[in-house]
Design a protein that fits this description.
single chain; about 220 residues; alpha/beta; Rossmann fold; five-stranded parallel sheet; three-stranded antiparallel sheet; 9 helices; 8 strands; about 50% helix; globular
Length: about 220
């Protein structure tokens, strides 16, 4: 199965990607992992990307695309993969199609984790992180026994800047403008499957696996 996972920030893509990839026996490939591997490995693409990152600039699509192309050509991705974080826009989606055509391995399906934006704000702005151990609690879904104190080590809990409601709403606006058009692109291409991403993690995983199983041998 050659799968792309899409959905807004806070939809649970990282968590579901792990479970889905394990269930179908395919590697989970995220752009973050690809960047770290190239930068730490000192590849030519990694050195180029680091120049942009050190300058505080976005890494151009052509550099990201080249890294993804190299990763998809590796032996462990021959029989399938799960892509998380790529493509991020319609132009990258077109480039992904060209890459996979060259590899003779067209995309099987795109899974959209559908969740209401208000729910995303609630999910992310309710998170509190321990300053000591880094464990993340949630004021509603997984609260500590004592407000503001980590159950694990007694560390102080705080709200990260990127979990502030206004920051979350900005991230969602960026997603709406840049990445959400992918959903229409893949729906028109007949590749999109959407599931409700609300509810317990186990329930969402069950829905995802059920929706993807028909594509397992494609």
């Amino acid at each position: 199965m050659r799968l792309v996972l899409v959905g807004p920030p806070g939809a649970g893509k990282g968590t579901q990607a792990e479970f889905i990839a394990e269930n179908f026996g395919i590697p989970k490939i995220s752009t973050g992992d690809i960047f770290r591997a190239n930068v730490s490995g000192g590849t030519d693409l990694g050195k180029l990307a680091k120049k942009y990152m050190d300058a505080g600039d976005l890494v151009p699509d052509e550099v990201t695309n080249a890294m993804v192309r190299d990763r998809l050509a590796q032996p462990d991705a021959k029989d399938g993969f799960l892509l998380d974080g790529f493509p991020r826009n319609v132009a990258q989606a077109g480039e992904l199609d060209r890459m996979l055509d060259e590899l003779g391995a067209p995309l099987s399906v795109v899974l959209d984790l559908d969740v209401d934006f208000d729910e995303v704000v609630k999910r992310l702005s309710g998170r509190r992180t321990c300053k000591s151990c880094g464990h993340v609690w949630h004021l509603e879904y997984d609260p500590p026994k004592v407000a503001g104190i980590c159950d694990r080590d007694g560390g102080e809990l705080y709200q990260r800047d990127d979990d502030q409601p206004e920051t979350v709403r900005h991230r969602l606006e960026v997603y709406h403008l840049q990445t959400e058009p992918l959903i229409g692109f893949y729906r028109e291409a007949g590749r999109l499957v959407a599931i409700d991403a609300l509810g317990p993690v186990e329930d969402v995983t069950e829905r995802a696996i059920g929706a993807l199983t028909p594509f397992a041998n494609s």
